[in-house]
Batch of 2 targets.
Target 1
Amino acid sequence: MSKPFLSSRNPSLLGLDDEIPFGIFQGFPVSEVLAVDPQYISWLIANTRLKFYESVHQELKYSKRRPVPQYCGVEYDSIIFDNVPF
């Protein structure tokens, strides 16, 4: 029978400067992951045995209050595709 993910490891206590030990952001500091993808940290808290310092939880709350940037791109009608090399 397989064991649940991280069940054989001791829970770690991670701070803002500690590196994520696995996954898509393995080796990246928690602070950088919070800046790029705060939902990933929320997922780690909810679905793994990793523990985070209160400072991480505070940053996570702050990042959820930040406004999400809106796309302000260019209309496709204004792009000229004559010079595409394929």
Target 2
Amino acid sequence: MGATGTSTGGNAAAATGGQGGTATAAATTGGAGNGGVGNGAVGGAGGAGGSISVSAGTFDLSNAMTGTAQSAAGILAIVQNTGIGALAQQSVNVQANLSLGK
């Protein structure tokens, strides 16, 4: 038979961390601040609207023609338009009988 042996583990050494260093801060002066970029001001409110007044006029449907043909001589064509029918068509026909050379 071969030789036999026993072994035992060693003891672990306990380690402690070192102390932290100390820091001292020197007093410093802050830098100068820069001003912001300026923008234009907001415009004012618009003015109130003006007033408007309209009129449709007056509509007169009377059928009077005073003194219309009092100084007419020759051929006379009279038309009256009341405004409802805006188109008035006129026609004048003349038949003349002439005898020449007698």
